[in-house]
Amino acid sequence: MIGRTPTGGPPLLVLLLPSRLEDFDQRELAERLLKAPGALAVEPPRVSYQRLGGLPPALAYSVARRQAKRMKLPGTPAAIALFDVHQVPLAVALAMRHQGAEVWQLGPDPAEGLDSALVLDLGATGDLRPVWERAEDLGIESGRLGSERIR
């Protein structure tokens, strides 16, 4: 059912990695983000995001909805970060499934027309402070900026 939050648990920052972490060109930044207690990575599906991006939009979003439905997460996504425009269908499907979750674009080429709460090319800036600040605003434990203190 779209629009319900099936998991519960702590707020999460879900990083949709465009490739395996070991192969990701922004691996260092991703690893810094993943040190946060409230962050987790989702590696790409067996069928690449680029191949999925080549599907007709209706079919791509249908596949993404099924992927989002099958994901077992240890909390509730408060933010879903994508790094590549081909990840938009999955990010949107997760945001629809977890009502209230924000979509963040952290890659070099943001998707036009996507309603994103945060658009930042991490590869160009390397500055994670805007990510930590927004995460803290959403209640995601970052281990920085005081989130480790009792609320």
Chain-wise SSE layout:
Layout: E1 11-16, H1 27-34, E2 39-42, H2 49-53, H3 57-70, E3 76-82, H4 88-97, E4 102-105, E5 118-119, H5 122-125, H6 129-137
Parallel strand pairs: 1-2, 1-3, 3-4, 4-5
Helix pairs in contact: 3-4
Compact summary:
The chain contains six helices and five strands. The chain is an alpha/beta fold and 151 residues long.
Question: Level of helix content?
Answer: 25-40%
Contiguous uncertain segments of 5+ residues: 1-6, 147-151
* Average pLDDT reading: 86
**How many β-strand runs?**
5
Termini separation (Å)?
Answer: 32 Å
Indicate the proportion of strand residues: 15-25%
Structural class: alpha/beta
> What's the gyration radius in Å?
15 Å
CATH class: Alpha Beta
Q: How many separate structural domains? A: 1
Describe this structure as you would to a colleague.
With 151 residues, this protein is α/β, with parallel strands linked by helices. It has one domain (11-137): Rossmann fold. The chain has helices at 27-34, 49-53, 57-70, 88-97, 122-125, 129-137, and strands spanning 11-16, 39-42, 76-82, 102-105, 118-119. α3 crosses α4 (88-97). The chain is globular and about 40 Å long.
Question: What descriptors fit this protein?
Answer:
disordered C terminus, Rossmann fold, 5-stranded parallel β-sheet, 6 helices, 151 residues, alpha/beta, 5 strands
